[in-house]
Amino acid sequence: MAISQDILLFFAKFIEKELGIIYVEANYFQLEHRLRDISTQLGFGSIDELYQKARVGITGSMKSLLLDLATNNETSFFRDASIFKALSSHIIPELTKDAFKSVINVWSAASSSGQEIYSIAMEIEELRKTGIKIPMIRYLASDVSDTILKRAQKGLYSQIEIQRGLPAKLMIEYFSKTPEDQWQVKSHLQSMMNFKKINLLEEWGDIGKFDVIFIRNVLIYQNVENKKKVIENIYQRLNPMGYLILGAAESLFGVSDRFKQIAVDKAIIYQRD
Ligand SMILES: C[S@@+](CC[C@H](N)C(=O)[O-])C[C@H]1O[C@@H](n2cnc3c(N)ncnc32)[C@H](O)[C@@H]1O
């Protein structure tokens, strides 16, 4: 039975209000497909039944699944490799010039399944081995999706995921193979991490200040107003001279002029005053 446009519009509007992600009508078939999955997962016989319940009030588990369905979790280890090189060749050496700095705070906002934050940590640990004196690093990884955040926290990856971007040398050093042929992040890397559910469009809570913030491939789905709001909040959360890292296809053009743009080899990074 075809689902009415009103029902699809109801769920599309909910997703837009919560995440700022707009479902255009051309993608309603995809929305319908996913709503069918959610109905089954929650034990409803149809999307119509799900809708009748949602109209009365969207419960915790329903909300969590609806937000999961709207998010694109595409990621990989060392995605856009030049950024990680800029981290070890420029950002960390610059931050460690301050001899009084006892901790460097790094945040991967919209971390998806964790490849980004673990890549950052591996890059820095490898740099540490070269003898440069690096203070303790405090890592925060956050995402709006409960499901994907739990995956990040678990640090367990399939053979296919592990092959995407991770050099063999680092795989051997930082991961161990499970009897099920998966790859588990070793505890010395995993134990450095903190995970927190954060919707970038809502209050972030008491997360402190950061020296480096990665916010990659998430604002791309937002309108300019939301981008401006999030980047202004990022500015406030960065320590003076702290660094902001965007995705390869993203820029601050038309969003903020509060950051200095720096080219490090092929990478573009941003620094606050
Ligand atoms: C395409 S992934 C990017 C992952 C990683 N940063 C990278 O570049 O490889 C986008 C992530 O943003 C998250 N996301 C989407 N909207 C969000 C929001 N409003 N607040 C926080 N995270 C959000 C999604 O759940 C998803 O995991």
Features:
binds S-adenosylmethionine; three-stranded antiparallel beta sheet; 273 residues; Rossmann fold; alpha/beta
How does this model look, in words?
By secondary structure, the protein is of the alpha/beta class. It has two domains: 5-70, no CATH class; 81-272, Rossmann fold, CATH 3.40.50.150. Helices cover 44% and strands 19% of the residues. Strands 6-2-1-7-8-10-9 form a seven-stranded mixed sheet. Helix 5 (81-95) packs across helix 6. The protein is globular. Residues 19, 71-75, 79, 110-112, 116, 143-145, 148, 198-201, 216-218, 247 line the site of S-adenosylmethionine.
Offer a quick outline of the entry.
44% of the residues lie in helices and 19% in strands. The protein is of the alpha/beta class and 273 residues long. The chain folds into two domains: 5-70, no CATH class; 81-272, Rossmann fold.
Indicate the topology.
Layout: H1 5-19, H2 28-41, H3 47-56, H4 60-70, H5 81-95, E1 103-109, H6 115-129, E2 136-143, H7 146-154, E3 156-157, H8 159-163, H9 168-174, E4 175-177, E5 183-185, H10 187-190, E6 193-197, E7 210-214, H11 224-237, E8 238-245, E9 259-264, E10 267-272
Parallel strand pairs: 1-2, 1-7, 2-6, 7-8
Antiparallel strand pairs: 3-5, 4-5, 8-10, 9-10
Bound molecules: S-adenosylmethionine.
CATH class of the largest domain: Alpha Beta
Q: Give helix and strand order, one letter per element, not per position.
A: HHHHHEHEHEHHEEHEEHEEE
CATH-level-4 superfamily name of the largest domain: Vaccinia Virus protein VP39
Bound molecules: S-adenosylmethionine
Low-pLDDT residue intervals, each spanning 5 or more residues: none
DSSP strand tally: 10
* CATH third-tier fold name of the largest domain: Rossmann fold
Question: Over all CA atoms, what is the radius of gyration?
Answer: 20 Å
Quickly count the helices.
11
Mean residue pLDDT: 95
| Largest β sheet strand count, sense and barrel closure | 7 strands, mixed
Rough outline: globular
State the distance separating the first and last CA atoms.
58 Å
The tally of structural domains comes to 2
User: Helical residue percent?
Assistant: 40-55%
Strand order of the largest sheet: 6-2-1-7-8-10-9
Derived from helix and strand composition plus strand pairing, the structural class reads alpha/beta
